[in-house]
Amino acid sequence: MLERNSDSSGDERGISRRERASASGDPRPVPAAPAWNDWPAELPNRGMRAFLAALARLISGASVRWIDCQPDTCQRVYFANHTSHLDVLVLWASLPSNVRNLTRPVAAKDYWEKGWVRRYLAMQVFDALLIDRKEIKVHQSPVDLMLKAIGDRQSLIVFPEGHRNTAAEMDEFKSGLYYLAKKRPDLELVPVHIDNVNRVLPRGEFLPLPLLSCITFGPPIWLEAKEPKVEFLRRARESVRRLKDL
Question: Residue 132 burial (CB < 10 Å; 0-12/13-18/19+)?
Answer without folding.
Answer: middle
